[in-house]
Amino acid sequence: MPLSADDRLAIHELVALHGHLMDDGAFDRLSELFTDDFAYDVTAYGFGVLRGYAAFAEAARTLGDGNPLGHHVTNVVVSEDADGTVRVRSKGLGVPVDGPVGTVVYEDVVRRVETQPPAGARRPATGWRISYRRVVPRRRPLHPEGRSRHPEG
User: Are strands 34-41 and 49-51 parallel, antiparallel or unpaired?
Assistant: First the structure.
């Protein structure tokens, strides 16, 4: 069954939520963004594939002031494979404390989930979550380095 307009809107809002949660340091709300078994591939930055909430939060805390001041997402494109896998490709801009703004391509696989919301959750437990995200830095113009398919999912 094709994605509905409501599904597409919910997925766009999900992708946008990432920047707000990261910039707020709201790691206690990661279940509103990711599935329980998510993988966050930052291999291009030398961190490998982070799996789960604890590993993700620890990596972000360890990075400390190396984290961007702001995570901004744009150019969100949602697609559905023949097997029903839902993929999202978007552009990200990271504004650092000092130095030039960086740009990335986010390659996501998202899934509809139904779970119990943790105490204090602000989003419903049922809905779309990111199960896999690959972060591909853009370091050269007009180069297709971000065009590969997801190795997982």
Answer: antiparallel
